[in-house]
Amino acid sequence: MKRILHVVTNTGHYADPAHPTGLWLSELTHAWDIFAARDHAQDIVSPAGGRVPLEPRALKWPLLDASARAWLNDPARMALLENTAAPDRIDPAAYDAIHFTGGHGVMWDFPGSAGLQAITRAIWERGGIVASVCHGYCGLLNTRLSDGTPLVAGRRLTGFSWTEEVLAGVAKIMPYNAEAEMKARGAQYRKAMLPFVPHVVADGRLVTGQNPGSAKATARQVVRQLTG
Q1: What is the DSSP string of the chain?
Q2: What pTM does this model have?
Q3: Which of 1, 2, 99, 108 could form a disulfide with 11 if both were Cys (CB 3.0 to 4.6 A apart)?
Q4: Do the strands 188-189 and 200-203 form a parallel or antiparallel pair, or are they unpaired?
């Protein structure tokens, strides 16, 4: 049995409080289901600990699939999102992998979290897997290794593209261009030829998925890494 730490956002709105956002639920549930099917232990952490807001768009048809709906209808699982652990409650040595989920909220609270950076660095440097899906890669923007180099420098990865931001109609209200910021840190960003289709990039122990539709494939790649 392996242990996986999921990372979720505490941010419930864009810069304009009238524009809600939060965790894209299926990006958590798809991975959770795949890890649970293999009896891996799982925990959830957020930058501040406590409650996790949910992205409203992800809770509507056709984006609300059976996996996310089952979570919404399970009080025990919903309770996990009401009382997530803060980074200072986490022992990185207990985990074999860390998995950053998305939703636009992460763009605000993932990059500046020194606690998440420390956990990620510790898991990576002891040979663990670092994974992200969609906007979750924002959590890797400012993570540096013990020698001071960015974890993503020179590594192939993917995440929600700027083209997808434009097509989703939200580019003008983004706090930054995550794709461009990754490239500025030396990452070798990759994306699928078509937007919104599943796309996963694995560069050794770094496993990243481009968009919500990539959540299952990303989790399956993490499983392969854990059992390889």
Answers
A1: --EEEEE-----B-SSTTSB--B-HHHHHHHHHHHHTTT-EEEEE-SS-B---B-GGGGSTTT--HHHHHHHT-HHHHHHTTSBBPGGG--GGG-SEEEE--STTHHHHSTT-HHHHHHHHHHHHTT-EEEEEGGGGGGGTT-B-TTS-BTTTT-EE--S-HHHHHHTT-GGG-SS-HHHHHHHTT-EE---SSTTS--EEEETTEEEESSGGGHHHHHHHHHHHHH-
A2: 0.98
A3: 108
A4: unpaired
Tell me: the pLDDT tens digits for 19-73?
A: 999 999 999 999 999 999 999 999 999 999 999 999 999 999 888 999 999 999 9
